[in-house]
């Protein structure tokens, strides 16, 4: 290869999809430019297995660091194939502390076992619980916490997205329904639990869920955006909050570390 290349190892949530989308947008923008010079090209590994094989070609374990640090690279248009500046900056002030991490061990370990929260809304769990539990088992979820309760208005409001909380009419409709009867709250555990549960539930609007896939849970059990059958933790931080909210006394599985990890 006649020109130097920059090889980066990146880490992030849903990294393959996110990086692929970013590169697609960058490529489309690059193709729309009118320039006499060729612009830099970018390729990425598409699977964890390929990532592992390619990473060991370029890096050693000591090359990988973690910590609250970021880097950015700056290149001049006329010298776009050469890295002209790399800057490291700390998010915690002047000091930058990091430690070596075995990325190879991380890749080989596979998906991390996580916890998430599923709230089966009033009127749904009492009629459909056996089928719901069977489907959770088929999707390899373990139930590590369960509570049957009637939600307080403040708790119900805290579960709603920001856009609903900012709409008084929508907020009242959701809270009235959520507090109208008893709900069943489950803490679920499996690898990649948060995303898997959201993929099963589908969009908040049951009609949209029905159009996407009739097998989505909200498509099967929901009748409106308010009475859509289920609440599920939308992200890992939200899942950690929900576990603490509904199960402050702890969970029945020692492998569940969501609450402790979030506090560290």
UniProtKB/TrEMBL annotation:
A Pfam family that the UniProt record links to this protein? NDK
Q: Where is the Nucleoside diphosphate kinase-like domain?
A: 113-253
Enumerate the UniProt keywords alphabetically: Kinase, Transferase
Which superkingdom, per the lineage? Eukaryota
* Molecular function per GO: kinase activity
Q: Does the keyword Kinase apply?
A: yes
Q: Quote the Gene3D superfamilies the UniProt record gives.
A: Nucleoside diphosphate kinase-like domain
Keyword Transferase set for record: yes
Family classification = Belongs to the NDK family.
Protein name in UniProt: NDK5 kinase
């Amino acid at each position: 290869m006649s020109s130097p290349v920059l090889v980066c190892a990146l880490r992030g949530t849903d990294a393959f999809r996110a990086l692929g989308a970013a590169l697609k947008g960058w490529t489309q923008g690059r193709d729309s430019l009118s320039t006499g010079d060729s612009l830099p090209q970018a390729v990425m590994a598409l699977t964890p297995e390929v990532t592992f094989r390619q990473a060991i070609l370029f890096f050693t374990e000591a090359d990988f660091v973690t910590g609250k640090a970021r880097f950015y690279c700056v290149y001049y248009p006329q010298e776009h194939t050469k890295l002209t500046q790399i800057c490291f900056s700390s998010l915690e002030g002047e000091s930058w502390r990091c430690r070596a991490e075995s990325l190879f061990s991380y890749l080989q370990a596979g998906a991390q076992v996580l916890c998430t929260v599923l709230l089966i809304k009033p009127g749904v769990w009492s009629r459909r619980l056996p089928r719901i539990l069977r489907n959770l088992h088929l999707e390899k979820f373990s139930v590590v916490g369960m509570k049957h309760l009637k939600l307080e208005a403040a708790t119900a409001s805290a579960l709603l997205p920001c856009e609903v909380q900012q709409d008084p009419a929508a907020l009242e409709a959701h809270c009235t329904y959520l507090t109208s009867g008893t709900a069943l709250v489950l803490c679920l555990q499996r690898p990649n639990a948060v995303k898997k549960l959201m993929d099963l539930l589908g969009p908040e609007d049951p009609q949209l869920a029905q159009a996407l896939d009739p097998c989505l849970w909200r498509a099967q059990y929901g009748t409106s955006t308010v009475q859509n059958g289920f609440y599920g933790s939308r992200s890992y931080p939200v899942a950690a909050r929900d576990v603490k909210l509904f199960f402050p006394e702890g969970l029945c599985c020692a492998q569940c570390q969501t609450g402790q990890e979030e506090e560290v």
